[in-house]
Batch of 3 targets.
Target 1
Amino acid sequence: MGSATAVAYNVLDQADAAGQAAPAAIAARLRGEILRGSIPAGERMRQDAVANRFGVSQNTAREAFKLLEADGLLHSEPRRGATVAPLSGTEAWEITELRSLLEVQALEWALPNLDKSTLDAADAVLLRLDADGTVDEVISLNASFHRLLYGPARRERTLALIETLRLNFERYLRLTWQETGHLAQSQREHRLILAACRDGDRRKATALLRRHIRETGRLLVERIERLHGGTSVEAKPSSL
């Protein structure tokens, strides 16, 4: 059995075992490849090629593409097909601004409900992050830390929007940790945010989170513009 066929069966078998629809399983596989750069920004993706790869119909491949479009990872144009969304400083800063609005609001809602066990769990995640594992591990743990802080907000629509933005931001985030050594600075900021949450200091916690998000965004914009050029974007972190 060829490796491509083995991958196709593996993805669909896992989906079947988990009760997951084939389009969602294929989208999840492609999403991971896009986020890790295996399918680079700007690359054209053909439905027939994806259908052949996974041994499914073009209708199934089309539904998978729609899921990736909803994530903001694919752009489709009539008669031109689909391409992987490009990385741009403008988009990185737009996502940063949206994150700084939504995540700060989520934390503000969550603070009255944050209990010791949740804060201790967030602290444990930071200890694991200190180990500085693979980029995949770092990004997963970073997301877990933030989810723990926002989860008690109990605002499902807001939390879903935050997850979508974080998914789009992940490709950019990889540039930060892979190329700029940002983890140490991020960890210092995480601990300051967590300490303010333990103190119940709403104003300080939200200000620290806003600055954390915007500073990460600023570093990303600078990195992207050095790598690829592009439109200049003003990206200054807000002050406390």
Target 2
Amino acid sequence: MQAGMQKKTACGLTATDVLGAAAFVLLGVSVYMALLYAPTELIQGEPQRIFYMHLPMILAAYLGFLIVFVCGVMYLWKRTMGYDIAARSAAELGVFFTTLVIISGGLWGQAVWGTFWQWEPRLTFTFILWLIFVAYLMLRSAAQDKERVARYAAVLGIIGFLDIPLVFASVYLWRGIHPEPAGMPRAIAMTLFVSMAAFLALFAYLYVLRVRWDRAKDRIEEMYAELEEEHQA
């Protein structure tokens, strides 16, 4: 996959370059549609426009955590470090987008409900999700034994992903400030669709770059370790 992303097109661009350009064009279009095309929501007013960034960002975060889950299962089965690298890169992006979700949701809540944070079900489970994967990244940086860290991280990533169904179900199972999903006008749905495409493309672009960086970093560390062994010998 990485080799394919680095092949150049007739214009001299790699597939990664094209993906990045598409992501940023889509982001520009989505911002335009969110601010100027989509109608003003009757009850929440202008602050509702945060929704067009808020929901796509959490979908990007969930995609990252899904990759962590799948690669964690595959690592525990195959014991291949490539799966571990893929999971690590996805977890970093998942935490990044979840952080943006918490901040944007807080700003939206402050404008609409008069509070940045409440310990209501969906917010609480989202915060737990964020904490689990922050701990996942801390585990990565704290230990030296790569195989042991990869094994523990895979288990933690699988457990963390299981919190996502609780985030979804919390709106239906417990009363909170988040409303249940409902139908939306065509202009709002189209704007949301474009924004979702933009953030998923952005996630894909950043993920390719991050995996490439992590693989190069691991190769450099392996070469450094080999040089140290030769020097000691």
Target 3
Amino acid sequence: MNLSQWEKWTLVDRQHVLFVVARRSVERRLLPSLEQRYAVKVTQLRREALQVIEEELPDLVIVDVPSIRFDVGRFFDSFPDPRLSIATFLLLGKGVRLDQMPRANGYLRHPFTTRQLMRRLGRAVPAGSSDMVVWEDLYLDTENRFLIWDGQQVPVTPKQVTLAQVFLSSPDTIISREHLMQEVWGTAFMGDTRTLDVHIHWLRKAIMQLEAPFLIETERGIGYRLVSHLPPPDSPLLSDTIS
């Protein structure tokens, strides 16, 4: 584990994730997407992972079961305090039966895409930071001013952050131009709304840069609406939880 990971852990005000993985290819593929949403530390060894859990109390522990060289059930049993509210998520290999695995908050089998992983994590461990606003896996980091989709991010201005926050807080709903002017600029004056039009244009451009399946539709004479073009979710490969 390098120093930058430890620095990132303490400086970024996001949910803390411990990623236990011993395959470099898996780490390289998944880590960039995880770091868009979480503050992440990576470990390979059981002893090191338990030390991080005891000292740092992560919100979530993700374990890549096929790559580790220790028993995941005994690892969970060794958590310093069973009363700690640490969520767990297991990445499983083909053919592994759930009744052979310890109870966890979520599961996903290899192979999978990073988008599938981030969606499953979002359902299993809802974001707890007030600095993140999310709808349909489109994230707005209000503190660092980034719009995030599928592991990619684009910077947005403070006004665009406020504008995006209004849309994400009321998705698939027509929002009047008057309401947007009041929320973003603190005025009900509607004599010249070119500023609003320009910021809508920039926000649309940011979404296009992410290649995200969302659109800010114009409702002529009324206002705007944020809509999703995501296809219906596929049937999950595994249940997120064990009842």
